[in-house]
Amino acid sequence: MITAIVLIKTTVDRIPEIAEAIAALDGVSEVYSVTGTYDLVAMVRVRSHEDLAEVIPGHLNKVPGVQHTETHIAFRTYSQHDLEAAFALGLDE
């Protein structure tokens, strides 16, 4: 599974509608409205790099109101669950 974090600048007065349209795309697991330089952050999870090309430039970038995107591909996932398990190794409670 490939995870991409997509930072999105949008037309500010249409953020909720744009977020909903992006969230409805296949491959998009979550969309967050955020503060800062970008308006939205989308989590894209797909099986292959070819699928990323289909989802991000093929569909997400074409949603009306999306002005700019910046994509970051994750190398490794560290979840809170994984960290707690790692620190609990060998410890009796």
From TrEMBL:
UniProt xrefs under Gene3D superfamilies: 3.30.70.920
One Pfam family, short name: AsnC_trans_reg
GO molecular function, one term: sequence-specific DNA binding
Record GO biological process: response to amino acid
Domain Transcription regulator AsnC/Lrp ligand binding: start-end pairs: 6-77
GO cellular component annotations of the record: cytosol
Protein name: Lrp/AsnC family transcriptional regulator
Taxonomic classification: Bacteria, Bacillati, Actinomycetota, Actinomycetes, Kitasatosporales
